[in-house]
Amino acid sequence: MLESFSSGDSAIDQHVSMSVGQFERVAATISERTAALLSAEVTVTDAHGVVVASSAPRNVGLHYPLAAGANMPSPNMLRFPIQVDAHRGEVIVEGTADGAGLPPLAAQALIDLLIDQAATVTRLPNHYELKNKFIYDLVMGSFADTVNIPREADLLGMDFSAPRAVVLIDASDYILGSGRSTVAHNSSVEFDSGGIRHRAQHVITSVVRFFNLPDDTICGYIGNGEIAVLKASADRDMAAWMQEDDRSRSSPSWANLTALKRAGAALLSRIRADTRSSVNVGIGRYHPGLHGLSRSYQDASLALELGRRLHGDNRVHCLDSLGVAAFVGVSDARTQLDLAEHILRPLDAESELLRTLDAFFSENCSPSATAARLKIHRNTLAYRLDRITTLIDLNPRTFDDAVQIRIALLVRTFGRA
Known about the structure:
The chain is of the alpha+beta class.
């Protein structure tokens, strides 16, 4: 009898926990969407006046200052009741960005609509988890059969008609709350722990607003404090960050990468401002096909790992920005060859410059010996080396750049054999 009671009690506890979680999910949606639509600070409290969601995430978990009536409400403040199942609370809207008052009836109608929509969506079984799991499986290459992927993507509202590359955001300091975690990717234990889901969604909302996306369907929390963004990377999608000569030396796999890095740098600044935490961004190349997203993720993840070790936090990391470490740290021969081809491609039509590099390295980088070997004046050699530096952004006269160029030449020679 006692065992039967305990089992029932556990079931009740689980139901209450799920109900509380649904209230928090609805509250998070209300605070984010209302704040975006009204350009106002929006707070949602529970029945005890504790902030469960806010457009200012640092307030979550605190007792709302006005909930107990300690201060008089400001003229621009509006307060509306909220109820999800048996849980009650309050939505507090504190004016617009310019200080103008809000029409109460319009604000009430908007919030009622958002509550109904959010409650309906969150009642769908594991809606957010399904999306995150789908993105996780996609970037990890877990789909053995890609035939049904487009149909599943369509059901989740994802569009893969445009080419996409992976932008990997490491916001673990903010999402996990106490530095990086060793919990496995996509761990349900980690995902369900207090506050992590809301903080991950806040980062995703920041991404959506930055890229002006219609929704968050192509952003997923994949665990370990990381957000994967499947960013459309065609010319029209990157127009805001492209410059005239970006594609002058790019192969298809490296196309628009420079623009992606510019976008990544601006996104990094936005997320750091929104979270007030340390953030890193890894940029992956575009690879064709659905399986290409897995390769793009591998690029971004490796760049993130190596870049953090070399350059520290709060930076954008990409394979072509890691110097010699990219060749040393990358074990995949195909990626090494791709990187070498990318570095040297501007010299493909400059056979004279390639011969000059061969002679320069054969003569131990000695300008006088190289000029003698090539039977040219030292000023001519200096001009050629300057030209090489301009074309590939690497200076053969400096040690690190010379090593990188030399390795690229060797990798390409052996890779083409």
